[in-house]
């Protein structure tokens, strides 16, 4: 309970930050998701998902052995995970990608949310295609300036590929088009992440599993105690994602490349709050 109280405080602080920063930005959002940009999906462009359940955390942790054995001739595999939780306001999902022991060749690497889970035998082919509820298809390639025109599951397309020649990679960003609300097409909690070579070879893959259930009197159980109310997926007038890539200047081969992506305009504050809540959620899990 002490941890719960701490989490509440952090969430409250995050909320204050949103309010404070939002009031500083009196100008209306300079861009909107629609009608800007081409319509790429058969069902339109991806829509912003609201009402994602607070505190529900999904994590995909990579296995000990790769699917594509040739990527690790000496054994081992990519280590690490992709963790996801809703922003405190429920708009968008905060992703944290943290990997090490990356393949020595084959980059820049790609990673996506794929529609199907990985079976027990670890066959990444069984993940099928990318999460693509608006039926966009893979071609042409994602334009990261217009993430709503990309496949929802194309995370490296929207937020950056992973450079070759580094041992580690970390990225944190808010994606507005994926969801932790069960029942939506953009829901990924029952799906998987696939890590690819640049040529799309499937190197390794992992299923998302729920590791925290969010609201409720007890956080000890991983069973869901949250409401499964389906949120409406609808466009809102905020986009214009910005990306900053900070490459380390040190010579250590293990120095991570850190990518920080935040939504511009009012959502930057939301993203900051999301980071705080996300950290709190992870702390809680520990
Ligand atoms: Cu993929």
From TrEMBL:
<comment type="similarity">
    <text>Belongs to the Cu-Zn superoxide dismutase family.</text>
</comment>
<dbReference type="GO" id="GO:0004784">
    <property type="term" value="F:superoxide dismutase activity"/>
</dbReference>
<feature type="compositionally biased region" description="Low complexity">
    <location>
        <begin position="23"/>
        <end position="35"/>
    </location>
</feature>
<keyword id="KW-0964">Secreted</keyword>
<keyword id="KW-0732">Signal</keyword>
<keyword id="KW-0049">Antioxidant</keyword>
<dbReference type="GO" id="GO:0005576">
    <property type="term" value="C:extracellular region"/>
</dbReference>
<feature type="region of interest" description="Disordered">
    <location>
        <begin position="229"/>
        <end position="255"/>
    </location>
</feature>
<feature type="region of interest" description="Disordered">
    <location>
        <begin position="23"/>
        <end position="42"/>
    </location>
</feature>
<feature type="compositionally biased region" description="Low complexity">
    <location>
        <begin position="238"/>
        <end position="255"/>
    </location>
</feature>
<feature type="signal peptide">
    <location>
        <begin position="1"/>
        <end position="20"/>
    </location>
</feature>
<dbReference type="GO" id="GO:0046872">
    <property type="term" value="F:metal ion binding"/>
</dbReference>
<protein>
    <recommendedName>
        <fullName>superoxide dismutase</fullName>
        <ecNumber>1.15.1.1</ecNumber>
    </recommendedName>
</protein>
<dbReference type="InterPro" id="IPR036423">
    <property type="entry name" value="SOD-like_Cu/Zn_dom_sf"/>
</dbReference>
